[in-house]
Amino acid sequence: MSGEILQGFGALTDPVTFFYLVGGFLMGLLFGAIPGLTATLAIALLLPFTFAMELTNALVMVMAIFMSGIYAGSVTGITVNIPGAAGGAITTMEGYPLTKRGEGAKALSLDALASSIGGVLGALVLMFVAIPMSQFALLFRTPDKFALVFMAVVTVVIVAKGSIWKSLVAVTLGLMISTVGFDNMVAQGRFDFGSHNLIEGVLLLPAVIGLFAVCELFLQGGSPPRGALDAPNFKVRHRDFLPKWADIREIGWWTYVKSSIIGVLIGMLPGGGASMASFVAYAEAKRVSKKREEYGNGSHEGLSAAESANNAMCGGAVVPLLTLGIPGDAVTAIIFGVLLIHGLVPGPGLLTNEMATIAPMFAALMVAAVFVFLSVLVFGPYYIRLARMNRAVLYSFIAMVAMVGTYASTFSVFQMWVALGIGIFAYLLRLMSYPLVPMLMGFILGPYLELYMRRALITSQGDVMIFFQSPISLGLYAMMFLFIYFLRIRAPKVG
Amino acid sequence: MTLNRQVIFALFILALDAAYLHQALSLTFPFARGEPGPAFMPLILVVVLAIGALGVLVQELRGTPDPDDEVGGTFALRTLALIALTAGFVWAFEPLGYWIATAGYTFAVAWLFEQDRLGGVRAVLTSALIAAGITVSGWLFFAYLFELFLPAGRF
Questions:
Q1: B102, part of any domain
Q2: A156 in Cβ contact with A441 (< 8 Å)
C-alpha cells in the first residue's frame, strides 16, 4: 500500500498532472475567497471538463480545489470581515478583530499554518484509514449496506443548519428526483411522462450545475452590489506572513492536533462539512482554554482551532466516499460523479482494485495542504483584491461555463433545460431558506437506498426484521441515534 | 396565524407531493407480485415529504420558525431577467450556434450586473468587452483545450 501511495506522489511530478494540481489550487483559492462563491461551485463548474480529462488529472485537480477552496473561505473573512464561504465564519470571528488591531498579516499567517497542519493530518488519516476501512466494508451484506445509506440520509437531515423539517423536505425531494427514469429491477419507466429524454433519469451533471451554479447566478441577481470594502489597515509585506515561533508555542501543538482530529471525524460524518468542523473544534478549544476572555476578540488559539479542523475535514470527507461509497458532503458527492463518469464505482472494492488510480488523489490532497502555507507567503499581500473582483465578469463567466458545459458534456439541449429547471427550483428553495446540500445527497444516495432496501426485502420475502438482525446493522443504527443525540439534541454551542 | 410566503411554499410542496403520489399510484402496487416493486420507495417518500412539509407548516402557523434557518436570498427583477435570458440562451444555442448565442448571453448577463454600477452607456461598452473575452475563452477551453463539440449554428 505504501508503495502505491509513494507512486501517487510520483504521479504528481508529471508536468501535466502538476499543472492541473496548481491550476486547481489557484481556482480553489479564487472561488473560496470571493464571497458568495465556494469550492463546491468551482468543482461543479469543473465537472463538464472532467469528461475530457484523464481521471488522475481530474481527481488531482478536484482535490486541490477542495483543499484551497476550504482554506480561502476564511481569507476575506480575516481581511474585510466577509467570509468567502460559510466554513470561514468562525475564523472571521477571531481573524477580523486581529486585522482591526493591525495584526492582519499575523492572522493570515496563523490561518494558513493551521490550515496546512490540519490539511496534512487529514490527508495522513485518509492514507492510513482508507484501506483497513474498505476491507472492513467488504463484510457488509445488503441489509448492512441499507443501514449505512439510511444512516447517511438521516445524518444529512440532522446536521443541516436550521429547521429539521426543511432539511427533511430537501433530502426527500432529492430522493424523489432520483426515482425518475428506468427502474433497473423490474424494467419499468417511472415518472418519465413518456419522454425518451427522461427514461435514463435525471443525470448528475445537470443536477449539480443546476443546484449550485445556476441557482447561485439567480441568487446573485437579487443581491445588492457590494459596497467599497474596507482597505486592510496593516502593511502588507511578504515577510510579515511568516508566523512567529512564539505565537505557535502559545497556541500549542495539541490545539492543532486535537482540532484536526475533530475535523477528520466530522468530515467522515455524512453531511458534516467545513462549517460544522470549525464550529465544534472552536467550541472545544474555547471549553478547555486558559484564555477564554480572548475568544471573540482575536484569539490565536480559536482561529487556529477552527482552521485546522476546517481543512482536516477534507481528508475525512473522502474516507467514506472511497471506502463505503457514501459521499459525506456536496464536494465528495461531485467527486462521486467524477469517478462514475470514468467508470469507477466508489465503494469497498475501489481501493483494492484501483489503488494506483486513486493514490495520486491522496498525494494531491497532502501537497495542496502544503501549498496552502506557501500560498500565503506568495499571495498574502494580494488577497484583499480577491473580494473586489468584478461581478459582471464573474457571473457571466459562471453562466457561460454552467450552460455550455452542460451541453458540451451531454450533447443535449434537453439537459440544459434540466439544469435550468433544477436551478430555478433550487433558487426557490434557497429563497425560502431550505438547504440544498441534503437535496443533492438525497439525489446521490437515493438509488442505493432503494436498491438495498428492495433487495433485502426480496431476500426476506417482505420481512422487515431482516434490517435488524446483523450486528453491523445494529451498530450503524446505534451510531445514528448517537449522532441524533449529540448533534441535534445536545448540539455544542459557541457562545 | 399568518399566511406568509413560507406557508404558501409548504403548500406548494404538498401539491408537488400530491402530483408525485398520482404518478406513483399508476405503477405496480407494492408486493402485488410478491416483491416491493417500483412503487414501494416512491410511496414511502410521499409520506415522508408530507410529514416534512406539514412540519414546516405547523412551525410557521404557530409563529415559531427556526432562528437558525439559513438566510434566504432576495427576490429581484434582475433574477427574473436572468431566468428569461438563460431560457432564451438554451432555446437559441443550437440554431444560432455557440459564438452568437454565447456572445449575446454573456453580454446581457454582464450588462445586468454592470448597469447599476456604471450606468447604461458605459455598461454597454464594458459588457461588450467582457462578453467577447468570455466567449473566446469559453471556446478555447471547451473546443480547443478539451476538444468538446460546440454547435456552429443552422445557417
A1: yes
A2: yes
